[in-house]
Amino acid sequence: APLVEMAEVGKSYGNVQALRGVNLSVYPGEVTCVLGDNGAGKSTLIKIMAGLHEHTEGTFSVHGISRNLSSPRAAQGLGIATVYQDLALAPLMSVWRNFFMGNELRKGLFLDKDTMRRVADEELQKMGIEIGDLDRPVGGLSGGQKQCIAIARAIYFGAKVIILDEPTAALGVKQSGVVLKYIAAARDAGLGVVFITHNPHHAYLVGNHFVVLKLGRVSMDAHRSEVTLEQ
Ligand code: ADP
Ligand code: ADP
């Protein structure tokens, strides 16, 4: 069963119709790639999933129950986490503190420093992320490492669906590789990943399912077996 399902979803901002008739399902253990030009509706789509905007038409379901999420907290409570390009990491704080930042009181957690450092280390290692010294400020890490930390943090705090907004857009080839490898690891760990990207090659490397938006509508919807990457 899909974790998240959109059926004929539409969204208008006043008289601007940003999305219409969108059908899209996010399954566990799959990367659903969403591609499309600027203005196609990608941000609007993820904002509906993330609880930042309410849809105006159709049905949005989480675990089979129709919802109209009214806040990011509501989305988070249902296991939907969004990792934005700007990441919300505090550059001057250590890796381990960033890992727990804003989450100390969730899951009944109230851990001492040593435990937080150890748990952060275990969680990052479990998913194959090489960080080294966790006392280092996050600001000194590579863009790829930062993306991976933000994703690992969301997973540890209960996300079942991870929405990634252009996670490789600001990265070079090597750092993009780090993040793509990590997306594949999250997929293989059973998460449902929504991967927004402009890069068809990146989509093809990790994707199970490809959805292209054009002027707010789905213009292509294909499973991996149905596509080849044309250069
Ligand atoms: P993308 O992320 O693919 O660039 P968006 O979802 O940001 O696309 O935008 C889709 C359409 O909706 C665009 O025409 C955009 O100008 C419009 N739009 C997005 N947000 C708003 C808003 N808050 N108010 C009015 N129009 C908006
Ligand atoms: P993003 O693509 O990350 O949403 P943008 O710069 O496109 O970033 O948009 C920033 C904010 O402005 C968003 O909240 C978006 O919904 C809103 N927005 C985008 N396009 C329009 C528009 N045409 N009119 C009004 N608000 C808009």
3D architecture notes:
- Helix content is 31%, strand content 27%.
- The chain is built from 7 helices and 10 strands.
- It has helices at 42-49, 72-77, 95-100, 113-126, 143-156, 173-188, 200-206, and strands at residues 4-13, 16-26, 30-35, 57-62, 65-67, 80-83, 161-165, 192-196, 209-214, 217-223.
- A hairpin with a 2-residue loop joins strand 9 and strand 10.
- The model has no long low-confidence stretch (mean pLDDT 90).
- The chain binds adenosine-5'-diphosphate (2 copies).
- One of its GO terms (molecular function) is ATP hydrolysis activity.
- It comes from Marihabitans asiaticum.
Topology pattern, helix = H, strand = E: EEEHEEHEHHHEHEHEE
What integer value in Å does the Rg equal? Answer: 18 Å
Helical fraction equals 25-40%
- Tally the helices: what do you get? 7
Low-confidence stretches: none
Specify the structural class. Answer: alpha/beta
GO molecular function: ATP binding; ATP hydrolysis activity
Organism: Marihabitans asiaticum
Keywords: ATP-binding, Nucleotide-binding, Sugar transport, Transport
Protein name: Simple sugar transport system ATP-binding protein
Which key phrases capture this entry?
ATP-binding; 231 residues; sugar transport; ATP hydrolysis activity; binds adenosine-5'-diphosphate; Simple sugar transport system ATP-binding protein; ATP binding; 10 strands; four-stranded antiparallel β-sheet; alpha/beta; 31% helix; globular; single chain
